[in-house]
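Q: What would this complex look like in 3D?
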Amino acid sequence: ALHLAKAQDGKSLEDFQKVYNAIAEKLRDEDEFDGYIGYGPNLVRLSWHVSGTFDKNDNSGGSFGGTYRFKKEADDPANKGLQNAAHFLEPIAKKFPWISHGDLYTLAGVTALQEMQGPKIPWRPGRVDADEKDTPENGRLPDASQDGSYVRHYFGRFGFTDQEIVALLGAHCLGKTHLENSGYEGPWGAATNTFTNEFFVNLLNENWKLEKNEAGNKQYNSEKGYMMLPTDYALVQDGKFRKYVEKYAKDQDAFFEDFKSAYVKLLENGIDFGKLGKAYVFKTLDEQDS
Ligand code: HEM
Ligand SMILES: CCN(CC)c1nc(N)c2ccccc2n1
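A: Here is my prediction, written as structure tokens for the whole assembly.
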């Protein structure tokens, strides 16, 4: 059965907006991280990795239990580099001890996306910390060296369509790869902390060359210093995926809309929010200044 979301005694939109603001202000303060990319992309990746362990076949894993806080999950080689995001969130968890880890990890991704000028992401609280014994085993996160059929099969585990898969991967407009984390490197100089459809524009416009990187892994590089993982490049090699790449390269609003829906589905997979009321849509810091 699905995990039942539990209402946070007496916490309302205002309380969660305070958590949002604390994360958003810390993002602005600590802007020098990772060559002035900041923590935003790393927080988005954490929110995806804590959700990407979900398996609809036995409803194990997923964002509900906040099990990333346990060593087994945090030490998954696929999570290398996310310790930075976890350390970033420790003082936030101390300041707001009433928020569950699952709610904090997902809210941090929503905050980062909105503060990086991404779409407004409706978010619902109610995740409840699970026991260490419920931590999913390693190996549930995807392998970047694979092709389009692997990507389609992998995301089939969450029940995602081709369109949802392509939209989700558009998050690779943020941040960069780090050789010491994943064995991939780049993009050079181009890494950004602004949410746009440029991942799709690059896929279609750049001249891609398959090369072996210093770790001996193959990746696609362009003269302008952009890079694509094999699983990124698969989106233009596979005809069914390619159609959505072309759509999003032409229409950033359509990308924002479809990304928002797929990201909410990713973060809420396996959770029954029942009659706990509608989702919260938080104001950005800029919207609160005025
Ligand atoms: C086929 C599925 C995917 C694969 C194989 C994949 C693989 C990777 C790899 C290898 C990195 C580099 C990590 C490092 O070296 O630090 C990365 C970074 C990243 N991924 Fe993905 N990813 C996938 C899907 C996603 C999804 C669904 C999202 C979010 C919705 C996402 C968001 C990110 C972000 C924001 C970064 C940059 C992190 C940083 O700059 O620290 N990825 N991904
Ligand atoms: C769109 C080019 N960028 C960032 C400006 C990019 N491209 C990627 N292909 C990429 C892949 C994984 C993680 C981050 C990534 N970032």
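A: To summarize the key features: The pocket of protoporphyrin IX containing FE (ligand 1) is lined by residues 41-42, 44-45, 48, 81, 142, 144, 151, 168-169, 171-172, 174-178, 181-182, 184, 229, 231, 263 (CB under 6 Å). The two ends are 45 Å apart (CA to CA).
Q: Very helpful, thank you.
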